[in-house]
Write a structure and sequence with these properties.
With 83 residues, this protein is mainly alpha-helical. It has a single domain, classed as 434 Repressor (Amino-terminal Domain) (Orthogonal Bundle). The chain has five helices and no strands.
Length: 83
């Protein structure tokens, strides 16, 4: 799994864990839901602005989100959120 796919998988898992729909996350992040869907599917490389917007919308620090992606890439599974 590449980094873009891992980022999307982590974002999707966090969104679902929080009980948010794609539309909910799009509204919280200020992103278009179609673009967000492409990010979650690993079809769009997220910009730094996108990473920060999604981290803020998911209420986790950007560094934690990136760490979760790093763990996902190295272990092949989603890491639990740091507290």
């Amino acid at each position: 799994m590449n980094v873009t796919e891992a980022f999307g998988a982590v974002v999707r898992a966090e969104r679902q864990q929080q009980g948010l729909t794609l539309s909910d996350l799009a509204l919280r992040s200020g992103m278009n839901w179609r673009h967000l869907s492409r990010v979650e599917r690993g079809e769009s490389v997220p910009s730094l602005v996108t990473i920060f917007a999604l981290a803020n919308a998911l209420e986790i620090p950007p560094r934690t989100l990136i760490g979760m992606v790093e763990d996902h890439v190295t272990t092949g599974r989603r890491a639990s959120k740091a507290k």
